């Protein structure tokens, strides 16, 4: 017995000796250890490590905390922009308990001696650029390990289970692969487990059910498969369960009904099937339930009334059937209800909104019938009401016309009838209103008085409205106005010319009469004008030819008369015209949009001439009059004078629009052709040739068209840019002509082409500014949003042009110049595959996945790059940043951040203060749009026009609860 005691005492002494030996390996002089750390890291702001000098005790150094014995106990240097590598000396401190180096730019691998400091309890290296594998070994007393948002790779080692004292483990936002090791079940005290946004595969281990202390599980944004383990239902302390965006299959376990502490259940974006277990509706502490984007089916039972704390219910994009339970109306805290894109039938619960606190209601794309309840806005907070594509009947409730909180209303594609409630035209916050394709009637003009100062989009098409058009809608920012297919009569108000932001005006299929008001030409941003199928008369106003961006004009099936203004064929932006079934006569213009016009677009008139595609008879002269014969004779007699005059005209034209110059030193003979008459008077060919010098070089790219020179007129202050274009003579027929017609405020204006036998240049206007990446960092959120919208509008214009397949912008930040008014200008590229260095092209961070294979850009690849730019504007990070690793990791990182709406962790710090307080919902919806634009499948990406509409719509707040999936139909 005594010998046993002596043996135990010897072992204790031995353990103490071994501990002291380990500490002696970690000790050394703590001054020296700290100074070696300082020497291994860069402090660009000179704020963190500047106090680390021998004039002070190291316990007084910034970021250092000591224990009672003056030993280093904490090193906390979070968010100091430090770079460099972590030296092994970080883990040589014998008494250190906390190391926090999060939110820096540190790189390299995590030192292998991490487990040598047995005193360490908290280690936070998150949000850096660390690479390599996860550290092995163990630190028995370690309680918190946060390595999230780095570039760590490889598998999670089985040794992770040796960290048996962990309470907090976050490995999210890395490049980890393989399966989740079962040894993780050794961490019996673990409370927080986050492995999200990696590349993990396999099934969720059922051993998680052994971790009874877990309160938070976040395994979203991986490639996990198989069913959800029923053992998770044994974690009765669980508060937050997030398994989103995986490939999980099977049914939701009924054992989840045991999770009585659960507040947040997120299972969206999986492949789950079957009904929602009835036991789920017994989780009385649930605050948010999101099961959207699965294949769930069955009905939602009235048992949902037990979820009295529920604030957000997302069941959209599933296969649910049956009625929306009436008990939903009795959930007192319900704020967001999104059930769109299912097969729900029956009526909307009659008392919905009476006892709720509704802010967002989206029941669109179901088969709902009956009336819209008049209680939806009882909370006074409802701002998004989306009920389109159902079979709703009856009148729009008067109560909605008093709902002053409303901002976005979409009730189209139903069977609503009756008149528009009078107060509806005075909802001062509404910016998007779509009531199209219903049976609404009555008048909307006259004495009604519209007071909707925020209104940007109004669509009343395909209803039964009548009477005069309103003179105004009380908005100076309206951009899209569609009142087509109704019974409106009277004249087009001249006051429509006050809509300075109007881009699309559709008044077709009404009973409008009178002439087109000249004032309409004041809408300088109008791109599409459709006045077809009315009773309009008079001539086409020549003022329409002065509209700078008019691209589509439809005047068909009216009573217009007279000749077609020749100047209409000279409108550079106009690409589509329909003047059929009127009383026009005379010659059809043979320029611009009338070139190769389809016969159906000119039929039903008394026109002649035009291309063969127009199907019109040739223009014939009448019987010659005597005076005509005399004039003819005089012309013949003066032939010599005519020839002389033609020579003079030719010389003048060469001076104004086409000039040649012999220059044996620079590629021989140069020819310069102008698309812009003003520029032809400002620039001489000698100015352009003289600009091709190294001192005028702006950039030398890797692609055809990559060399840029800046030039200046020798006779004025006019500045221009020359862009080299290879193979200019092989461009598609008519390409240069169409190029000169491009006219959009957000696209560079090409004013001419200069070429020789060896090469050619586009000559464009010079825009004073910086690339979007250089300038946006000093911008507020409002300014960034303006830039984003301008880029999207330019893409929309390019993609909608008939020559869209021939010319593009090969979108990237360096090709977007932002001027002093925050207007972006896109630089164009020549058609075809322009990359001559495929390796360099593929390595560009602004390339869509499919482009890396095809080595060419498309409209959908432009949209992908636009999504990357949106992410950059939102976060301040670029695809080239090293912490994102391979190719698309910035997108994966953005999806990870967005999934929980943790804005404070991903919004660019330079706009975080005001943006989060005033524009939080705009930022969330813009990120949602960016993620749609960067979908892997090109067909899943929105088109440019949808991007524009969405960006325009999100300038008003939308709802987002932190920790939620913020998707919604738009």
Question: Could you explain how this protein is built, in words?
Answer:
There is one protein chain. The protein is an alpha/beta fold and 970 residues long. The protein has 17 helices and 57 strands. The strands form 7 sheets. The chain has a 23-stranded mixed β-sheet, with no helix packed on it. A 12-stranded parallel β-sheet has the order 26-28-30-32-34-36-38-40-42-44-46-47, with no helix packed on it. The radius of gyration is 35 Å and the shape is globular. It starts with a helix and ends in a 17-residue tail after the last helix. The model is unreliable at 1-28, 622-633, 639-667, 802-806, 832-843 and 956-970 (pLDDT under 50).
Keywords:
970 residues; alpha/beta; 23-stranded mixed beta sheet; twelve-stranded parallel beta sheet; globular; disordered N terminus; disordered C terminus
Question: Nutshell version of this structure?
Answer:
The protein is of the alpha/beta class and 970 residues long. The strands form seven sheets. It has a 23-stranded mixed beta sheet, with no helix packed on it. A twelve-stranded parallel beta sheet has the order 26-28-30-32-34-36-38-40-42-44-46-47, with no helix packed on it. Helix 9 runs antiparallel to helix 17 (944-953), helix 12 (859-875) runs antiparallel to helix 16 (920-933) and helix 13 crosses helix 16 (920-933).
Q: What characteristic shape results from the CA principal axes?
A: globular
Structural class: alpha/beta
Could you name the ranges where pLDDT drops below 50 across 5 or more consecutive residues? 1-28, 622-633, 639-667, 802-806, 832-843, 956-970
Q: In this structure, how is the largest beta sheet organized?
A: 23 strands, mixed
User: Mean pLDDT across all residues, rounded?
Assistant: 81
Give the helix tally: 17
């Amino acid at each position: 017995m005594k010998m046993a005691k002596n043996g135990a005492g010897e072992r204790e002494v031995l353990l103490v000796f071994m501990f002291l030996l380990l500490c002696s390996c970690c000790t050394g002089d703590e001054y020296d250890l700290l100074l070696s750390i300082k020497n291994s890291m860069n402090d660009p702001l000179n704020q963190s490590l500047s106090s680390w000098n021998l004039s002070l005790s190291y316990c007084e150094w910034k970021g250092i905390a000591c224990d009672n014995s003056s030993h280093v106990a904490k090193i906390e240097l979070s968010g100091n922009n430090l770079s460099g590598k972590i030296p092994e000396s970080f883990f040589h401190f014998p008494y250190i308990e906390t190391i926090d180096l999060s939110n820096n730019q540190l790189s390299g691998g995590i030192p292998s001696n991490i487990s040598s400091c047995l005193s360490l309890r908290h280690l936070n290296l998150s949000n850096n650029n660390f690479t390599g594998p996860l550290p092995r070994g163990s630190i028995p007393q370690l309680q918190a390990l946060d390595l999230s948002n780095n570039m760590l790779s490889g598998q999670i080692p089985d040794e992770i289970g040796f960290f048996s004292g962990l309470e907090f483990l976050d490995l999210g936002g890395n490049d980890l692969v393989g399966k989740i090791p079962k040894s993780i079940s050794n961490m019996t005290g673990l409370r927080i487990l986050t492995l999200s946004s990696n590349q993990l595969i396999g099934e969720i281990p059922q051993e998680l059910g052994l971790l009874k202390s877990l309160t938070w599980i976040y395994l979203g944004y991986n490639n996990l498969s198989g069913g959800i383990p029923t053992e998770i239902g044994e974690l009765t302390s669980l508060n937050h369960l997030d398994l989103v965006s995986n490939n999980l299959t099977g049914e939701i376990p009924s054992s989840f009904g045991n999770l009585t502490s659960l507040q947040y259940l997120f299972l969206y974006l999986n492949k789950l099937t079957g009904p929602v277990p009835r036991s789920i509706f017994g989780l009385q502490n649930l605050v948010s339930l999101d099961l959207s984007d699965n294949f769930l089916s069955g009905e939602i039972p009235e048992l949902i009334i037990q979820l009295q704390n529920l604030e957000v219910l997302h069941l959209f994009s599933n296969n649910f059937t049956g009625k929306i339970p009436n008990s939903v109306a009795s959930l007192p805290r319900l704020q967001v209800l999104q059930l769109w894109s299912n097969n729900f039938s029956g009526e909307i619960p009659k008392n919905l909104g009476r006892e709720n606190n509704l802010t967002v209601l989206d029941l669109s794309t179901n088969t709902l019938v009956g009336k819209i309840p008049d209680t939806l806005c009882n909370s006074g907070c409802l701002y998004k009401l989306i009920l389109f594509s159902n079979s709703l009947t009856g009148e729009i409730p008067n109560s909605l016309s008093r709902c002053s909180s409303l901002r976005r209303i979409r009730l189209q594609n139903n069977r609503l009838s009756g008149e528009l409630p009078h107060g509806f035209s005075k909802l001062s916050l509404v910016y998007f209103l779509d009531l199209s394709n219903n049976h609404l009637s009555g008048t909307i003009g006259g004495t009604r008085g519209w007071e909707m100062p925020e209104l940007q989009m109004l669509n009343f098409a395909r209803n039964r409205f009548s009477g005069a058009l309103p003179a105004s809608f009380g908005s100076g920012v309206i951009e899209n106005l569609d009142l087509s297919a109704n019974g409106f009569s009277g004249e087009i108000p001249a006051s429509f010319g006050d809509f300075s932001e109007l881009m699309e005006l559709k008044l077709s299929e009404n009973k409008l009469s009178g002439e087109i008001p000249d004032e309409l030409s004041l809408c300088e941003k109008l791109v599409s004008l459709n006045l077809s199928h009315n009773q309009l008369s008079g001539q086409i106003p020549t003022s329409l030819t002065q509209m700078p961006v008019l691209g589509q004009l439809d005047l068909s099936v009216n009573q217009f008369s007279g000749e077609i203004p020749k100047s209409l064929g000279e409108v550079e932006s106009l690409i589509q015209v329909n003047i059929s079934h009127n009383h026009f006569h005379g010659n059809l213009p043979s320029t611009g949009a009338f070139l190769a016009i389809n016969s159906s677009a000119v039929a039903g008139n008394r026109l002649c001439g035009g291309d063969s595609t127009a199907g019109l008879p040739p223009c014939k002269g009448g019987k010659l009059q005597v005076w005509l014969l005399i004039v003819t004779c005089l012309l013949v007699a003066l032939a010599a004078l005519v020839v002389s005059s033609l020579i003079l005209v030719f010389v003048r034209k060469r001076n104004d629009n086409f000039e040649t110059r012999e220059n044996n030193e620079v590629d021989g003979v140069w020819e310069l052709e102008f698309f812009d008459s003003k520029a032809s008077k400002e620039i001489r060919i000698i100015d352009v040739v003289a600009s091709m010098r190294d001192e005028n070089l702006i950039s030398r790219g890797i692609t055809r068209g990559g060399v840029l020179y800046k030039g200046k007129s020798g006779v004025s202050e006019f500045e221009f840019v020359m862009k080299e274009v290879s193979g200019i003579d092989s461009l598609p027929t008519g390409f240069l002509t169409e190029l000169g017609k491009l006219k959009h405020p957000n696209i560079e204006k090409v004013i001419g082409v200069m070429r020789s036998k060896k090469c050619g240049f586009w000559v464009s206007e010079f825009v004073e500014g910086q690339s979007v990446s250089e300038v946006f960092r000093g911008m507020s959120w409002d300014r960034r949003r303006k830039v984003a919208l301008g880029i999207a509008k330019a893409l929309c214009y390019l993609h909608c042009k008939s020559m869209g397949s021939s010319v593009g912008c090969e979108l990237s930040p360096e090709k977007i110049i932002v001027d002093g008014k925050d207007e972006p200008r896109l630089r164009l590229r020549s058609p075809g595959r322009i990359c001559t260095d495929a390796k360099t092209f593929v390595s560009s961070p602004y390339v869509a996945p499919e482009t890396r294979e095809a080595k060419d850009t498309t409209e959908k690849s432009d949209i992908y790059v636009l999504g990357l730019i949106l992410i950059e504007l939102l976060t301040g990070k670029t695809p080239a940043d090293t912490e994102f690793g391979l190719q698309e990791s910035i997108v994966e990182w953005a999806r990870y951040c967005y999934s929980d709406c943790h804005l404070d962790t991903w919004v660019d710090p330079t706009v975080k203060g005001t943006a989060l307080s005033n524009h939080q919902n705009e930022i969330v919806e813009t990120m949602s749009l960016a993620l749609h634009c960067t979908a892997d499948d090109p067909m899943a990406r929105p088109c440019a026009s949808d991007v524009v509409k969405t960006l325009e719509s999100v300038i008003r707040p939308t709802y987002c609860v932190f920790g939620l999936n913020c998707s919604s139909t738009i």
